[in-house]
Amino acid sequence: MTATPSVLFLLGPTASGKTALAIWLQGFLRLQHGRESTLISVDSACVYRDMNIGTAKPDAAMQALHPHQLIDLIAPTDVYDAAQFCRDANAAISTAHAQDKVPILVGGTMLYIKALVDGLSELPVADKAVRTRLDAQAVEIGWPAMHNELARVDPIRAAQLSPNDSQRVQRALEVFALTGKPMSSQQIRASSGSNTPLRDYRSLFLGLQPSDRAVLHARIASRFDAMLSQGLVAEVRTLQQIYTLHADLPAMRAVGYRQVWEFLDENSPFYGDISQLRSRGIVATRQLAKRQLTWLRAMPYVEPVDCLSPNLQELVVNKVTAFLQVRAN
What we know:
Layout lengths: L5 E6 L6 H16 L3 E6 L17 H6 L2 E2 L12 H17 L3 E6 L2 H9 L9 H14 L1 H11 L1 H5 L6 H14 L4 H4 L14 E8 L3 H18 L1 H11 L14 H8 L9 H24 L4 E5 L5 H17 L1
Parallel strand pairs: 1-4, 1-5, 2-3, 2-4, 5-6
């Protein structure tokens, strides 16, 4: 009997050390198990070309040594969604198995993982009249207030979104207006059919979760400072010169990029204020981490691992080895 192909997942909030641990795990599998592996990115910001510093994307040297799939797929002017990720990730997983490699999916875009596990339901198409009404309402009361309205009708989806994520807040309110049902109850649904790409695989999900949130916050601040010193502002300026961008593009709403955009916008109250850029960027990243952890805790199949443990590698080794041994038997 042919063993069921395996897939490893290494998930966690921003600044939890996912990339470094994934690269170490790749070496462990090679040396201790004689298995080659393929790293597959699960990051909605890393799909954009030329957005390198603010996404903490593996640099060219690291990519040469440890190639990541699903990085640098599209221009910052384009749109990428969970459905496209499922198609691309499933193709990358199948290719890895065809090469007798272990796929390791690493990242923090939990919606993508949820879509892979449970499949995507069919949501109603965009309705221009509803969107026009929502836009007018947002002009009157602001997107944070629109987010409050979303929290009233769909608290689960609201908890996953930033109050300033206008596009996604609008979409969730639009779905509720068109169907009378929360988007969270429709967007992801369990299915045993072809809508669930992982149905043919055995999967191990490891979720990096900090035992001390303050330590994660310190890491976030340190990493954002490093991004600023590495030239994040210059990177956004270059993007504005190369591409025809606007503030509502998904790429420019990514954490860090939104704050730099406002720093560079002469009409913004935050224009040219580096201290505001730093503080707002750190706060936004902390909020992102909080949402990512909320997702992780809601995924019953994820095995939590303390990313701050001094024995982190040993913890991961024990779980991965046990998983692979079951497969071998």
